[in-house]
Design brief:
CATH class of chain A: Mainly Alpha
CATH superfamily of the largest domain in chain B: MetI-like
Number of domains of chain B: 2
Shape of chain A: globular
Structural class of chain B: mainly alpha
CATH architecture of chain A: Orthogonal Bundle
Order of helices and strands of chain B: HHHHHHHHHHHHHHHH
CATH architecture of the largest domain in chain B: Orthogonal Bundle
Strand content of chain B: under 5%
Number of helices of chain A: 11
Helix content of chain A: over 70%
Helix content of chain B: over 70%
Mean pLDDT of chain A: 78
CATH topology of the largest domain in chain B: MetI-like fold
Oligomer: heterodimer
Strand content of chain A: under 5%
Largest interface: A-B, 73 and 71 residues
Radius of gyration of chain A: 20 Å
Number of strands of chain A: 0
Distance between the termini of chain A: 35 Å
Shape of chain B: flat
Number of helices of chain B: 16
Chain lengths: 220, 296
C-alpha cells in the first residue's frame, strides 16, 4: 500500500518533467530516449539481480559511491526501514522511460496555437506550463496514474528477487503474499480469496480515478 | 519548422532586449537541460554498465575500493562458471520455444479473430468482443491461482505446455488487429471474394500483408512479454530443465552465499541479446510499446 501511494506520484512527476525536457529539440535526443527506455525492455528479474548487487551493503556500488563522498554506508535492503524505499527506487528506474514516452506523446498532441496565443498575451514559461500544459495533459496523466497504480499493485518480480518479502515482512506485497500462500503453503482457497480482493481493489481504484479525472477534464 | 521561426522574431524584437542578453537567456536553459538529461541518463545506464564491468572483472577487482570503473584485465571466468552452474543455453532454448510458439499462435488467432470481428456480422458480436476486451482489465496475478489449479487437473504442471497454456491467444492482439483490419478498404476484400478466394486465403494473402506493421508491433510486444515473464513460469515449472531465462536467473543465486561475478555474468548472458536487438531497433520498439502498452 505504501508502495503504491509513494511510487505513483513520484514516477509520474519525474516522467512529466523529463518529458517536458524531451519535448524541446536538442542533439542526441533519440539516443537519450533509447537509454531512458532501456530498463523497460530488460526483464525485471535480470535488472533486479543487478540492483541486488548495487545495493550490496559491503561492496555494492551505491555504498562505494557514498563512501567516496565521505557519507556513511547504508544497509539498503537489509534494514526493514530502507528495504521498501530501495525497491521503490528500483521500480521508478524501471518504469521511468515508459511513463516519459507516454507523456511525450501527450505533449505532442497539444496544438502549438495555444502556446502562441499565451506568448502573445505575455505568459511566462512557467505560467504556460501550469495554465496550458498541465490542464491539457489531464487525460495522459489519468492514464499514467491508473496504469501505474495497477502495475504497482501487481508488483512481484522485483520483490521476489531483491528481498523475498523480508526483512521482517517489511516488503511483503500483496502478490508475493498470494504466491507464498498458494504455492508454498498450498492454501489455494485463501489465495484465491486474496486474488478476488486484489481485483476488486484495482477495479475500484481504476473507476475512482477515472471518475475524478472525468470531472476535471477539459475538452479542446 | 516555419512556426518556430515565426514565433521568435517580431514579438521579441518589440520588447527591445539587447542581442547578447537574448542569447544568454536562450543558452542558459539549454545548458541546464543538457546537464539534467545527461545526469539522468548516467543514472539510467549505470546499472547496465556496472553489470557488464563486474561480469568481466577478476574477483579482486569486484570488491576493490575505490571501485575499478574499468577492469584491470578482462576475464571470462565468471561466464564459464555461470554456464557451468546452470544450463543457460537450455534456458535460452526454453524461453525461445515458449516465446515463438506463443507469439505465433497469438498472432494467428488474433488475425483470424480480428478479421471475424472486423468484417462479419454475427449474433452477440459486440458482447463477445467486450468480453474479450475485459479480460485485458483482469490482472494475471488475480487469475494465476485458479489457472494453476486448472493446470494441475489437466496434468500440465511442469511442462512447457503449462507455460504456454494461458498464452495461446492474446486479447490485446485481437483488439489491435481488429482495429487495423477496420482500416483496410472493404472493396479489396470484396474483390478477392468475387475472384473466388476462400476466406482463409483472403486473410492470409490480402489482409495480412496490408496490416503487417500492426502484426509486427503485436508480435514484438508479445515476444517481450513472454520473454520477460516471470510469475507464471515460476509457478508452472518445477524441474530445472524446463526453466525459462528469468526463472533460471532468479533461482540461480544461492541465498546464503552470493557470488556476484558469476551472477552478473548470468544476467549479461540473459539480457545482452535483447538489449542489443533493442538498441538496433529502438525507435520502432518505443513507438510500438507506447502505442499499445507493455506490462512491466
Amino acid at each position: 500500500m505504501i508502495y503504491v501511494v509513494s511510487i505513483v506520484p513520484i514516477s509520474a512527476g519525474l516522467a512529466l518533467v523529463l518529458a517536458v525536457l524531451f519535448n524541446t529539440h536538442f542533439r542526441l535526443k533519440e539516443f537519450f530516449k533509447a537509454i531512458y527506455f532501456a530498463p523497460m525492455v530488460t526483464s525485471t528479474v535480470a535488472a533486479a539481480m543487478v540492483w541486488l548487487w548495487l545495493y550490496n551493503p559491503q561492496f555494492g556500488l551505491f555504498n562505494v559511491i557514498l563512501k567516496l563522498l565521505g557519507l556513511p554506508a547504508q544497509p539498503w535492503l537489509m534494514s526493514s526501514h530502507q528495504a521498501l524505499p530501495s525497491i521503490i527506487i528500483f521500480s521508478i528506474w524501471k518504469s521511468l522511460g515508459y511513463n516519459m514516452i507516454i507523456y511525450i506523446a501527450g505533449l505532442q498532441a497539444i496544438p502549438d496555437v495555444y502556446y502562441e496565443a499565451a506568448r502573445i498575451d505575455g505568459a511566462g514559461t512557467l505560467q504556460q506550463f501550469f495554465k496550458i500544459t498541465l490542464p491539457l495533459l489531464t487525460p495522459t496523466t489519468t492514464f499514467i496514474l491508473i496504469y501505474n497504480s495497477i502495475l504497482s499493485f501487481q508488483v512481484f518480480d522485483q520483490v521476489f528477487v531483491l528481498t523475498g518479502g523480508g526483512p521482517a515482512y517489511a516488503t511483503t506485497v500483496v502478490v508475493l503474499e498470494l504466491y507464498q500462500q498458494a504455492f508454498l503453503k498450498y492454501r489455494f482457497g485463501y489465495a484465491s480469496a486474496m486474488a478476488m480482493v486484489l481485483f476488486l481493489f484495482i477495479l475500484s481504484i481504476t473507476i475512482g480515478q477515472y471518475a475524478i479525472s472525468k470531472k476535471k477534464e477539459i475538452t479542446y | 519548422m516555419p512556426l518556430a521561426r515565426r514565433r521568435r522574431s517580431p514579438i521579441r524584437a518589440s520588447v527591445g532586449r539587447s542581442k547578447q542578453f537574448d542569447r544568454l537567456i536562450r543558452l542558459f536553459p539549454k545548458t541546464c537541460l543538457y546537464i539534467l538529461v545527461l545526469a539522468v541518463g548516467v543514472i539510467m545506464i549505470l546499472p547496465f554498465y556496472w553489470m557488464v564491468v563486474t561480469s568481466f572483472s577478476p574477483v579482486e577487482d569486484i570488491t576493490a575500493f575505490p571501485p575499478k570503473w574499468i577492469p584491470s584485465h578482462l576475464t571470462v571466468e565468471h561466464f564459464q562458471e555461470a554456464l557451468h552452474k546452470a544450463p543457460f543455453l537450455l534456458y535460452y532454448r526454453n524461453s525461445l520455444a515458449v516465446a515463438i510458439i506463443s507469439v505465433g499462435c497469438s498472432v494467428l488467432f488474433g488475425l483470424f479473430a480480428g478479421y471475424a470481428f472486423a468484417t462479419y456480422r454475427f449474433p452477440f458480436q459486440n458482447f463477445l468482443f467486450i468480453l474479450i476486451l475485459s479480460t485485458i482489465m483482469i490482472p494475471f496475478q488475480v487469475t494465476c491461482v485458479a489457472l494453476y489449479v486448472l493446470l494441475a487437473k489437466m496434468k500440465w504442471v511442469d511442462t512447457l505446455w503449462g507455460i504456454l497454456a494461458p498464452n495461446f491467444a492474446s486479447a490485446l492482439g485481437v483488439f489491435l488487429i481488429r482495429q487495423s483490419i477496420h482500416a483496410v478498404p472493404r472493396a479489396l476484400i470484396d474483390a478477392a471474394r468475387i475472384d473466388g478466394a476462400s476466406e482463409i486465403r483472403i486473410v492470409l494473402t490480402v489482409v495480412a500483408p496490408l496490416i503487417k506493421t500492426t502484426l509486427a508491433t503485436v508480435s514484438m510486444i508479445l515476444f517481450l512479454n513472454s520473454w520477460n515473464d516471470f510469475l507464471w513460469p515460476v509457478i508452472a515449472i518445477h524441474s530445472v530443465n524446463l526453466r525459462t531465462i528469468p526463472v533460471g536467473i532468479a533461482l540461480f543465486k544461492d541465498p546464503y552465499h552470493i557470488e556476484y561475478g558469476p551472477l552478473m555474468a548470468a544476467t549479461v548472458i540473459s539480457t545482452a541479446p535483447m538489449l542489443i536487438a533493442y538498441f538496433l531497433s529502438q525507435k520502432y520498439v518505443i513507438k510500438g510499446i507506447a502505442l499499445s502498452g507493455l506490462k512491466g
